[in-house]
């Protein structure tokens, strides 16, 4: 959850955004082997689904393809982005979100994998922004009313 400091709604609740996996078919990919002697420090970004750091022009990407050539001393070492332990309050931020999926290959993938069976996404969902449930503003809704022993549907 990312909270906007100093901003509260009319009930005194702090506003913010939930950063969460989207509605894709699969779940986010996870690094299954921690402290790999082969991978070493080449993919530090894969240790968690989400990182938030201060924005720096010297940190434009979390890795480069050549990281696998020197995994002990990668050209871009994402672990160093986190090592400085800087405060992020009141700063421009970068969200590093690990987006991927686990897909079990099958013969239906030939000649290509259909996106309906291989999808993933991320959602930034407003938290404590709305005054009430947004569905209340729908122009057409149904209200069930009980009259005697029968239900009456009223469409507005």
TrEMBL record:
PTM field: Topaquinone (TPQ) is generated by copper-dependent autoxidation of a specific tyrosyl residue.
EC number: 1.4.3.-
Keyword tags: Copper, Metal-binding, Oxidoreductase, TPQ
Record domain Copper amine oxidase catalytic: where: 6-134
GO CC terms in record: plasma membrane
Gene3D superfamilies reported in the protein's UniProt record: Copper amine oxidase, catalytic domain (2.70.98.20)
Co-factor note (free text): Contains 1 topaquinone per subunit.
Top-level lineage group: Eukaryota
Pfam families given in the database record: Cu_amine_oxid
Name assigned to this protein: Amine oxidase
SUPFAM superfamilies the UniProt entry points to: Amine oxidase catalytic domain
PANTHER family linked to this entry: AMINE OXIDASE, COPPER AMINE OXIDASE
Bilayer-crossing regions: none
Family label: Belongs to the copper/topaquinone oxidase family.
Cofactor entry: Cu cation
Tagged with keyword Transmembrane: no
InterPro entries from the UniProt entry: Cu_amine_oxidase, Cu_amine_oxidase_C, Cu_amine_oxidase_C_sf
An annotated GO BP: amine metabolic process
A single GO molecular function term of this UniProt record: primary methylamine oxidase activity
